[in-house]
Amino acid sequence: MNHIELQHLSKSYDQSSFAVEDVTVSIEQGEFFILVGPSGCGKSTMLRMIAGLEKISAGKLYIDHQLANHLLPSQRNLSMVFQNYALYPHLNVEENILFGLKVRKIKKTVQRQRCEEAAALLGLTDYLKRKPRELSGGQRQRVALARAVVSEAPICLMDEPLSNLDAKLRGQMRTEIRQLQRKLGITMIYVTHDQVEAMTMGDRIMVMKDGKVQQVGTPLEIYNKPKNLFVATFIGAPPMNIAKAEVDRLNKQLILKNEIVITLTEEQLFSLKSDIVYIGVRPEQMAYGKGSNRDAHLNVSLSNIEVLGNETLLAFNVGDDIWKAKWLGQWPLDINKRTEISFPKEQLYLFDGKTEETLFSPVWNENVLKEVLAGESR
Amino acid sequence: MRKRIRPIIFYLLLALSAILIFFPILFAFFVSFMNGAEVLSRAVFPSTFEFDNYERVFGTVPLMHYLKNSFIVSSIVMLGQLVVCSLSAFVFAFIPFKGRTVVFLIFISTLMIPWEAAMIPNFLTIQSLGWMNSYLSMTVPFFALAFGTFLLRQHFKTIPHELYEASQIEGLSRFQFFYKVVIPYAKTSLVTLGIYGFLTTWNMYLWPLLVTTNDMKRTVQIGLKQLQTVEVSTEWGVVMAGVVIVILPTLILLFVGQKQLQKGLTQGALK
Amino acid sequence: MNLVEVKAQGQQEATLEAERVREIIAEKQVISHQNVWRKTTNIRLAILYLLPSIILFSVFLFYPMFKTVYLSFFLTDARGAAAVFVGLENYLYLLQSARFQKSMVSTSLFVLYTVPTSVIIGLFLALIANEKLRGIGFFRTIFSSTMGMSVAASAVIWLFLFHPTVGIINNFLGLFGIPAVGWLLDPTWALISIAITTIWMNLGFSFLIILGGLQNIDTHLYESANIDGAGYFYQLRRITVPMLSPTLFFIITITFINSFQSFGQVDILTRGGPAESTNLIVYSIYQDAFINYQFGTASAQAVILFLIVFVLTFLQFKFGERKVHYQ
């Protein structure tokens, strides 16, 4: 059942350019939906339009199949968690959690019960009498979550809720929020600029750039079948390696800047329309050594090595671009020594040189993968 | 070596300055315990600390009345300013509308008008309203204060916008947001403005002089003038007892709220 | 393509884009069927909340200001009603009147005596009270104490200190062999006496404001200067004063305006005398209006006072604002 529906939603602040342009998407009941993109891409504006904090310039917003364009924020039956938590500094944790309920004049006994439940759920029971400034960042975040929980609103909006936390806490809260959302079955719309959050938390992701939707899909779809160069480089860390290449149709090959040549399959060659393309390879597809003759290989000098314990990141130049390889294990190689690196040609992504649309991407079929896994477990 | 001398120099400077600055107040306190002979002999310290002069000052002028009047007037102005200024500051911080900048500029422009330049027509207005010798004339005209509006607006603006948005989502009306969130949040600057308002009203001189003609409504400052004219030649001890009584409330208020006031005033003035 | 063409093309693209945006909005916007009432919530609320201020400012500030200007063109009767229109006569009369000229000279001298001294002493006090020393809070409280002093109380105390027979200032000076001064009786000294009283009263406020300004200066600046080995006075000249300039500018303006508005100390200490040497402008207005019932000339003087304060405040906004943001 669709819960929130956006039809050609647009926002313009100055009547001469769009901050958000023509967004159409339908979000399911109980879905964890992520809006991701670089800062200034319009994702927060989208969220604020859904919340009713920002007027909608054009297009329609439906909540529960009802046109909601002109409803007040409080009439939309949703809760919201802000980046700075928006806790009232003069109220203690309990009063903060119950603030909204008091405004709505909900019965005292119900208030008490909901507050206790939410506090227990989020581990805040011992902190109810404290003021926000006496809490750590993570605890404040939990109070903000508790406030959303007690409202029992079926929709929850979150605007970069984890960006003020340190890396370790962020990892922990990611799991907590996701578990909470599953447990309560609420529809979540979650804004972030962090592709890790997007990949790990979302049922579906919407990638945005410059106010326009780039792609909507499950995390794996977006990772494996990016629609264009931007999505391909935005999702994944370290990002996909990219280089410009010329198409040599006669010899069925691509020529890169420092005279690296990659021969193409018929299928790949057939998909190319223009003579300039971008090639893309995920860092984890890179391997040490020359590889077999089905692989493309590069002879490079390493410019940097980061040994991370369980994996190693190697940087090297391909033309003017810095590429990275990600290998499992520890590889304390010599810097500035020429090294052979290779990758399977069928893992190559090809993007149009002008439109930057994806022309070719490696074979991936989620259903096949699922069937294989299911077969194994049987 | 230099390290040790430095604090000593500063302590010397501080002590010397403190004595020079505080001497007039301290001396007034001493004189308030002196009898006529001691005053005439130009003594610095009183021989005894007896409260004769204090008893007599209440007999010379109706000081109790004046104290009561001053207290009432100052309290009313303080409360009035807090209400009126916080309402307008709330608009400038949280309610956008077309032409708000213009209205704001008009508020700024009031700083350019010295009260004394408007005092003649104001006096005539008070007369025609029949507000002479009334608390109204000494309170109502001072409720609106551009400085107070700025001071509060400045502090209101530090309230994270998310709090406002969160309150919208929770369904608070604008007025509920104002008194449930903004007022408690800005408590400190309200206290600053309150102290400032009380101090300046308590110390007001020219305006009460103009609009009060009988003892029933006069304030302490006018009382001092009276005291000084009545007693000038003979009883300086009594006059100083009056002075001490009049300055005590404001000095205590100042000492208690000094830190607040400094922070608040600097903020209001400079940001 | 040269730069101009590129620019022109950019502009053209922008207008095309703007057109497209407006078309899409016009086509796809959802018009609210809510009534005007809800759309004007903000403005109605704003007016409601601003109303008390607006009414009070109108009645007790803007209207009387215009009325003052109006009255300054008239001769008035004893009840203050405008009787005869005389144009600029009141102003011409003032400019020729020896009394007014003297008043302006006294006021200017008075301002000259009080403003620099108040600010410099205030700065000195703030500097020594900004040190991190034990018990500094006590000194700060003492230094700010005159802010709690009313004009009347201060003036009465100083009246006593200056007193020819019982005043102890002359006593004190006598200790150093300085002959007695006729503080309030001598026309030159009377103005200085009032200035001393005023400076003393100003100190608390200017001290507090300058101390606040000092505490706003980033301590890292001093730390890095210390590492560079800069001495106290070098730091004072190169860091403190430049960083403090907005505060100093503000306090100078405020003290300026306050000085022009001085009244109580004159009324209690000298009543404008001796020989009208302390007849400062507000006292002169007061006398003309409320003692002699010359509302016309009093208003003309009030207009002049207004113009002076107006210009000073304007300068503060114009030059102060920019420097303040710099901080």
TrEMBL record, chain A:
Pfam family, any one: ABC_tran
Q: Indicate yes or no for the key word rRNA-binding.
A: no
The entry lists its GO molecular-function terms as: ATP binding; helicase activity
Q: Which residues form a coiled coil?
A: none
Read off the PROSITE patterns from this record: ABC_TRANSPORTER_1, ABC_TRANSPORTER_2
Q: Which UniProt keywords apply?
A: ATP-binding, Cell membrane, Helicase, Hydrolase, Membrane, Nucleotide-binding, Translocase
Q: Which SMART domains match?
A: AAA
Q: Does the keyword Lipid biosynthesis apply?
A: no
Which InterPro entries does this UniProt record tie to the protein? AAA+_ATPase, ABC_transporter-like_ATP-bd, ABC_transporter-like_CS, ABC_transpr_MalK/UgpC-like, OB_MalK-like
**Where does the ABC transporter domain start and stop, copy by copy?**
4-235
- At the top level, the lineage of the source is Bacteria
- PANTHER family in the record: MALTODEXTRIN IMPORT ATP-BINDING PROTEIN MSMX, TREHALOSE IMPORT ATP-BINDING PROTEIN SUGC
Q: How is this protein named in the record?
A: ABC transporter ATP-binding protein
Task: Tell me the organism.
Answer: Evansella tamaricis
The organism's lineage? Answer: Bacteria, Bacillati, Bacillota, Bacilli, Bacillales
UniProtKB/TrEMBL annotation, chain B:
Q: Name one Pfam family in it.
A: BPD_transp_1
Q: Where in the cell is it found?
A: Cell membrane
- The superkingdom listed in its UniProt entry is Bacteria
Task: Output the InterPro entries linked to this UniProt entry.
Answer: MetI-like
Q: Which UniProt keywords apply?
A: Cell membrane, Membrane, Transmembrane, Transmembrane helix, Transport
Positions of transmembrane segments: 9-31, 71-95, 102-123, 135-156, 236-256
Please give, as recorded in its UniProt entry, the membrane topology of this protein: Multi-pass membrane protein
ABC transmembrane type-1 domain segment(s):
67-257
PANTHER family, alphabetized:
ABC TRANSPORTER PERMEASE PROTEIN MG189-RELATED-RELATED (PTHR43744), SN-GLYCEROL-3-PHOSPHATE TRANSPORT SYSTEM PERMEASE PROTEIN UGPE (PTHR43744:SF8)
Please give the family membership noted in the entry. Answer: Belongs to the binding-protein-dependent transport system permease family.
Specify the protein name. Carbohydrate ABC transporter permease
Which organism is the protein's source? Evansella tamaricis
Classification from the root reads: Bacteria, Bacillati, Bacillota, Bacilli, Bacillales
